[in-house]
Amino acid sequence: MQMRSFLLGIMLIVLLRNGTSVAQTPSASKPVREPSPALAPVKDIAGLPRVLLIGDSISIGYTLRVRELLQGKAGVHRPPVNCSSTSYALQNLDKWLGDKPWDLIHFNFGLHDAKLPPEGVRHSPPETYQRNLEALVERMRKKSARLIFATTTPVPNNGILSPVRRFGSIDQYNSLARVTMQNQQIAINDLNAIVSPQADKILIHRTDEQGVIHWDVHFTAEGYDVLAEQVAATIEAGLAKPANNPIIPAKN
What we know:
Layout: H1 2-17, E1 50-54, H2 57-69, E2 75-77, H3 86-97, E3 104-107, E4 115-116, H4 126-140, E5 147-150, E6 160-162, E7 165-167, H5 170-183, E8 187-189, H6 191-195, H7 199-202, E9 203-207, E10 213-219, H8 221-240
Parallel strand pairs: 1-2, 1-3, 3-5, 5-8
Antiparallel strand pairs: 4-7, 6-7, 9-10
Helix pairs in contact: 2-8, 3-4, 4-5
């Protein structure tokens, strides 16, 4: 027994000298980021419509508040990820849609598609964006009788947030999306129009010592409340209308 304890002690000393610890803890300089509670799965609620939110980090920011506003009126789900760009969505949409039909899908793509290099590794030129949107709509129609597209919210400072964080024209991407949705007779929730008049108040920004304003595409708590109220009201109104897209079962 003593020999076994002695050998274990020697092994521990060797490990420590080699810079290896038995139990490693995260570095204080790199705290572990907890996943957003908005990404946690929710269960269907008997008797309530099933609603799916698809979108990037902006939609993650308003998901919890939308659930609160629609409590008792709809079960609001979302994929457990940032849905990013149209190209990323084409690779993952079937997984996000699942096996059951949805009473309504509220979706947005545009911000990640409009990213420009060097940060914009998933950048989609306008023509690619529109083509991808058409393909996504075709696939979502097989799972939901009601689709609502949300326009992409503004990017301040003419799309230049830093030397490496730049965006193409959000107006151009929204214009292409509107054409696609109108051609497909899909309802549009114009979040861009809601945000634009008050963007300087509800988009996150700070002013440095030189008086330069540094903008972000994300929102203050007040801003996410504005978005959530608009999204929830649009979903509720959409559910009240007759379905205009009878689900066509997939062919065997």
